Amino acid sequence: MEKLYFIVGSQDLYGEECLKQVAADAAEMVSFLNEKLEGTIAVELLPTVETSAVCVQDMRKAQMDDECVGVITWMHTFSPAKMWIKGLQELRKPLLHLHTQANEKLPYATIDMDFMNLNQSAHGDREYGYILARMGVPHEVAAGFYQQNSVVEKICRFANVAKAIAQSHNTRIATFGNNMRDVAVTDGNRLECEIKYGWEVKYYGIGELADLVAAVTREELDQKMAEYAEKYTMATDNVEAVREQAKYEIGLEKFIRKYGITAFTDTFQDLHGLRQLPGIAAQNLMAKGIGFGPEGDYKISALSSVLMKMAEGRDGATGFIEDYTYDLTPGQELELASHMLEVPASFAATKPEIQVHPLGIGGKEDPARLVFDGVTGDGIQVTLIDMGDHFRIVCADIELVKQPEPMPNLPVARIMYRHKPNFEIGTAAWCYAGGAHHAVVSTALTRTDIAMFARLTGTELITIGEDTTEADLQKFFM
Ligand code: MN
User: Fold this and answer.
1) pLDDT band (50, 70, 90) for residue 140
2) At residue 270, does pLDDT exceed 80?
3) Cα–Cα distance between 84 and 101 in angstroms, integer?
4) Where do the CATH 3.20.14 domains begin and end in the chain?
5) Which terminus, N or C, of the chain has the lesser number of Cβ atoms within 10 Å?
6) For the whole prediction, is pTM greater than 0.85?
7) Which residues place a Cβ less than 5 A from the ion ligand 1?
8) 75-97: per-residue pLDDT in tens?
9) Measured in angstroms, how far is the CA atom of residue 295 from the centroid of ligand 1?
10) Ligand 1 center to residue 186 CA distance, Å?
11) What is the CATH number of domain 172-476?
């Protein structure tokens, strides 16, 4: 299981007894957090930082340990921050500054100078905060008594985001074919993606996948069809088309294993050797946590894999969604978001049906796909775009709603949502911000999660929601 290291700051000025108490309080805090974060992450205490040398050792250990996804620091006493400089220079993992105390209440009747010397985070944590700011170390601050729900929740959120950032640095995207048909927003600086987020964007000719697909055995195919039959309702007589998709998924699974792939893209422009565009194959893989972006969109493919990791263990759905068409009835504006085929099965509100229909574009055989109505409730829509000299995340609060009327002639999975604060401001803000038509939608994550991710990765963030006003459109997007 992934873990966070917990590092407590003090100094050797205060004597043995004080340092013993610091270590004991820290151990109690760590055991409390382990109880609260069980199932999410483990927390492990490292030696108290009394000198620069200990700090370097602790931070090196955290940096080198593959199981460690981040570090929590807290200054129990004053800890002159020059002793943190070299240690912090060793750390390139997410950092949470826990601004807390071992005690909740001030013991007015008994407080003396010994107590003050021991419990002075108001003093030490500010000194430490200064050096983080001075060195430009990306970090998050959680302030409050460590046992308070709000503080525990923030630490838990940090754990999820830190796990997602670790996943980000292990993300390898297979792009089958390239960026499709001169689309701009799906393109960008692949090199910078790897430098900043650790995303390895690998080009593969689709021929290798086609070979794996061609080599699928009858037994493998029967097994995959049994998986589909268990999860989904077969609503087509064209079983051959479904078996064709099952072959694609088996081929993709083998490819993913062989090259350590966590996300992939395809494009209907380049399907040489495949008779259909991957539909149910991509949908079923996304539901298993494999990132996906259509039309060569490697950024959204990687982002979907990272955000699915962030959402792990929470209720709700997370995955790639594409903006398509609107209902512009005044005051009741809605968006129908879908794609040709590739809506993740995790968004299904009802048991998905396997259907086979023509695609309308691309000139290939009719692809089998999952058709369903989407889940409802509060969610976010997140995209990441390349602005030339930096990346920008745009995150909008949305409300996923039930489709108001049946759409019997639209044989794709359907997600519908309402923009916030309303259609006019919400979608105008998205357009001003340069938000893509490809995004990750999540009913499991919130704007706060994305803000933490943006802060810890040093990415520009624009948020849109109930608090966005007409005046913001003037102010932010000139
Ligand atoms: Mn598109």
Assistant:
1) very high
2) no
3) 20
4) 172-476
5) C
6) yes
7) 295
8) 999 999 999 999 999 999 999 99
9) 6
10) 8
11) 3.20.14
Does residue 478 carry a pLDDT above 70?
no
Q: What is the pLDDT of residue 382?
A: 98
Decide the pairing of beta strands 334-338 and 140-143. unpaired
Alpha-carbon distance 473 to 387, whole Å?
18
Question: Measuring CA to CA, which residue among 325, 267, 342, 269 is closest to residue 297?
Answer: 267
Which CATH class name applies to 3-168?
alpha beta
Q: Which residues pair with 392 in a beta bridge?
A: 385, 460
Q: Is the link from the previous residue into 421 a cis peptide, with omega within 30 of 0? A: yes
Q: How far is the CA of 437 from the centre of ligand 1 (A)?
A: 6
Domain with CATH 3.40.50.10940 in the chain: 3-168
User: Half-sphere exposure of 365 toward its Cβ, with a 13 Å CA cutoff?
Assistant: 14
Gap from CA of 212 to ligand 1 centroid (Å): 27
Spatial separation of the C-alpha atoms in residues 320 and 326, rounded to whole Å: 18
**Ligand 1 center to 32 CA (angstroms):** 47
* Alpha helices (H) in 48-84, listed in sequence order: 52-64
Cα(100)–Cα(80) distance, integer angstroms: 17
In tens, the pLDDT along 411-453 reads: 889 899 999 999 999 999 999 999 999 999 999 999 999 999 9
Decide if pLDDT at 477 tops 80: no
